[in-house]
UniProtKB/TrEMBL annotation:
<comment type="subunit">
    <text>Homodimer.</text>
</comment>
<comment type="similarity">
    <text>Belongs to the diaminopimelate epimerase family.</text>
</comment>
<feature type="active site" description="Proton donor">
    <location>
        <position position="74"/>
    </location>
</feature>
<feature type="binding site">
    <location>
        <begin position="216"/>
        <end position="217"/>
    </location>
    <ligand>
        <name>substrate</name>
    </ligand>
</feature>
<feature type="binding site">
    <location>
        <position position="46"/>
    </location>
    <ligand>
        <name>substrate</name>
    </ligand>
</feature>
<dbReference type="Pfam" id="PF01678">
    <property type="entry name" value="DAP_epimerase"/>
</dbReference>
<feature type="active site">
    <location>
        <position position="74"/>
    </location>
</feature>
<dbReference type="GO" id="GO:0008837">
    <property type="term" value="F:diaminopimelate epimerase activity"/>
</dbReference>
<comment type="pathway">
    <text>Amino-acid biosynthesis; L-lysine biosynthesis via DAP pathway; DL-2,6-diaminopimelate from LL-2,6-diaminopimelate: step 1/1.</text>
</comment>
<keyword id="KW-0963">Cytoplasm</keyword>
<keyword id="KW-0413">Isomerase</keyword>
<feature type="active site" description="Proton acceptor">
    <location>
        <position position="215"/>
    </location>
</feature>
<feature type="site" description="Could be important to modulate the pK values of the two catalytic cysteine residues">
    <location>
        <position position="206"/>
    </location>
</feature>
<feature type="binding site">
    <location>
        <position position="13"/>
    </location>
    <ligand>
        <name>substrate</name>
    </ligand>
</feature>
<feature type="binding site">
    <location>
        <begin position="75"/>
        <end position="76"/>
    </location>
    <ligand>
        <name>substrate</name>
    </ligand>
</feature>
<feature type="binding site">
    <location>
        <position position="188"/>
    </location>
    <ligand>
        <name>substrate</name>
    </ligand>
</feature>
<protein>
    <recommendedName>
        <fullName>Diaminopimelate epimerase</fullName>
        <ecNumber>5.1.1.7</ecNumber>
    </recommendedName>
</protein>
Amino acid sequence: MPLHFLKMHGAGNDFVVLDARTTQLNLSAAAIRHIADRRLGVGCDQLVIIEPDEAGADAFMRILNADGSESGACGNATRCVAALLAEETGERGVTIRTISGLLKAEILGPGLVEVDMGTPLLEWGDIPLVGPADTLHLQLALGPVSDPAACSMGNPHATFFVDGFAHLRIELIGPKLETHRMFPERANIGFALIESPSRIRLKVWERGAGLTLACGSGACAALVNAHRRGLTGRQATVAMDGGELLITWAENGHVLMRGPAETAFAGELPDLV
Ligand SMILES: N[C@@H](CCC[C@H](N)C(=O)O)C(=O)O
């Protein structure tokens, strides 16, 4: 049976979205990699599967990286799925469960969504790191980058603060940092340039997907880590190659992420399962 899909993106971070609320889907890692392949398949950074949620959220969202691995968080996909679910229910508020927990989203206008990404985890064991460490200053250096800060936004992130991007060969250092022994579950690696206390330029080498045009959880991690270092206030615009997100680390500890959610096209996959 061909499988209906939507191609969506949030600030250029792109997704193949499948609806498995009425039919169960068991995609192998090889099938996920094939769908995500930009030459042989549809092409995407993540494959997102909407599943029923037994515990009362509007839906469960499964997040699968282009390499077939699973993640607990994807900020940009959460906005996309929230926009889809809100269209169905006609409600502004949407709740979505992931393997990392429950997220609340609110539709602010056409194609504009805010998600409460929950509270960042700052302890080494929660990120996780390989052993006890100061998560504000990791003893990690590679080529021109050093001294990142780490946190979990439901998935592991390390943020390096940089002076510019011209001298960075992210395609070379990204995979080495992602798979560094310090990160037993690998990590998403952000490179953040602080332009002002309320503006960050960010590039993210994503775990399981490589260099993407934007990373929502990476933008949240960059703001959290920048604020912990005293480099920004609690709110900043995070500008990435594919677009901008407004990130707020609220006084109650929750991180709010506001940004676009768009549908590019719809299509059908041949039977790959
Ligand atoms: N694109 C995402 C993050 C997707 C998952 C990540 N690559 C991981 O493995 O944790 C976002 O917008 O947050």
